[in-house]
Specification:
6% helix; elongated; 4-stranded mixed beta sheet; 6-stranded mixed beta sheet
Length: 209
């Protein structure tokens, strides 16, 4: 048998993996809970159960190891066609994870000053961003561009701050004056749904009130 789909429910809590033929369920009983590492590569600590002979459910629990658009892989030598003798070839291979009719949404909102003086602190706040339909943790990934190129050391300084920032970003001397910056936030869930937002800031060469 071959995997034909690996589909999250609408809130990405349970992953339903279906096969094209009834299987031996990898030696497990229907509705028997077991560690997913017995069936899938890299999914140890997650719980699986067969709901029938051709569909197994993975209790994803916000795992970063199951991501929409990326593959999951069967452990070789476990799943066979139902009733087959031991010499029958077992299922192998991978399949891409998908989601149908997602009820999870990610919206990014960033607030802050559109212009700051050369001595001013920059504070960007994304706490108004919204992740609806899931209790999974948020994953923040900030980046930036500048209209005029910066020295490599300054780029490293800004990136070091952004790498540790979550819903807010605070920058001081890291940003040279007389330049325009665009900050971008990619806000995502562990299972791969994401939203992106940007904010433009002008840093003046003059001191502003």
């Amino acid at each position: 048998p071959s995997m034909v789909s690996a589909t999250f429910d609408s809130r990405a809590q349970d992953l339903f993996v279906s096969f094209d033929f009834p299987t031996n369920q990898g030696g497990k009983l229907v509705n028997q809970r077991f560690d997913c590492s017995a069936l899938f590569v890299g999914l140890g600590s997650l719980e699986c159960l067969w709901v029938n002979s051709s569909t197994v459910v993975v209790k994803a629990r916000c795992s970063p190891n199951i991501v929409i658009g990326k593959p999951i892989t069967l452990v070789d030598g476990v799943v066979q066609i139902a009733g087959a003798c031991p010499v029958t070839p077992t299922s192998t291979g991978s399949i891409i994870v998908s989601i149908t009719n997602p009820q999870v949404s990610v919206e990014v909102g960033i607030s802050g000053p559109e212009m700051i003086g050369r001595c001013s602190e920059l504070l960007l706040d994304s706490s108004a961003s919204r992740v609806a339909g899931t209790s999974c943790r948020r994953v923040y990934e900030w980046s930036f561009t500048s209209e005029s190129p910066l020295e490599a050391s300054k780029v490293q300084e800004v990136n070091a701050v952004l790498a540790t920032s979550q819903d807010t970003v605070t920058l001081n001397d890291e940003l040279p004056a007389n330049n325009i910056y665009v900050f971008t936030l990619k806000l995502s869930t562990p299972f791969g749904l994401e939203g992106v937002g940007s904010f433009r800031v002008v840093k003046s060469s003059e001191a502003l009130p």
